[in-house]
Design goal:
21% of the residues lie in helices and 30% in strands. The chain is built from four helices and 13 strands. The strands form three sheets. It has a six-stranded antiparallel β-sheet, with helices on one face.
Length: 227
């Protein structure tokens, strides 16, 4: 028969008298057991613009000699394309916004998702566009004719995202009154008023894509813009 070996301080349950067994069983039930869950690493948010000053008033976007392309990526390859463009030091912008999801266990996870699915905007020359093709993330490139309007639109979109106001992606532009925010952190931002259940929203769009993002108007003072 094998000898019974116990760790120091341990008590073999089977060798306890019946009354002690009952007491230990009740004590174990009363003491809460700590649930051990694997710790999910918290990853830093990825940058969606390179360089950081791309859309600044005196940034690279102000260089009239540079061209803009709307790059349509392969499915779910927007972030990978931006990582590769960043390593190549090619100027680009692919707006990312936070999205909250909840796991079956109730844990909330926040991820950064593209505002414009499958689109990344590239700023550069013909060689920059060619190098983007070599990333194996690109489906097609659409050259932007009105780069001035595009930069203006992208600046407004970036400003909305940086303000941390709740954004709703909009798949298409709807007709409505054009207005400008009069005061606050977003003063000067222009857009189109669209109606949704629960109140009016201000749609800030990228005209080239006919897509944009909208915010609730109830917290902002606006003024109409004459056509």
């Amino acid at each position: 028969m094998w000898p019974l070996v116990l760790a120091r301080g341990a008590v073999a349950f089977d060798f306890l008298p019946p009354s002690a067994r009952l007491e230990k069983w009740l004590r174990d039930r009363r003491e809460p057991r700590l649930a051990i869950h694997p710790t999910m690493p918290i990853l830093p948010a990825e940058s969606d613009v390179f360089p950081d000053t791309l859309l600044a008033e005196d940034g690279p976007a102000a260089d009239a000699s540079l061209r803009w392309w709307a790059i349509y990526t392969l499915s779910r390859r927007e972030k990978e394309l931006m990582r590769r463009l960043r390593r190549m030091e090619i100027a680009h912008y692919g707006p990312l916004i936070p999205r909250k999801t909840r796991s079956p266990s109730g844990r909330v996870h926040v991820s950064q998702v593209p505002l414009f699915a499958s689109y990344v905007f590239l700023c550069g020359d013909e060689m920059s566009r060619y190098r983007a093709w070599t990333t194996n993330c690109v489906s097609r490139c659409l050259e932007v004719d009105d780069s001035v309007q595009l930069v203006r639109d992208l600046r407004q979109v970036q400003r909305l995202i940086l303000s941390n106001v709740p954004l709703t992606p909009e798949s298409r532009i709807r007709p409505g009154m054009r207005v400008r925010i009069r005061s606050g952190a977003l003063a000067g931002t222009e857009g189109v008023v669209v109606k949704r259940r629960g109140g009016d929203r201000l749609l800030v769009a990228v005209q080239f894509l006919q897509k944009g993002a909208s915010i609730q108007l109830e917290d902002f003072q606006v003024e109409p813009i004459g056509e």
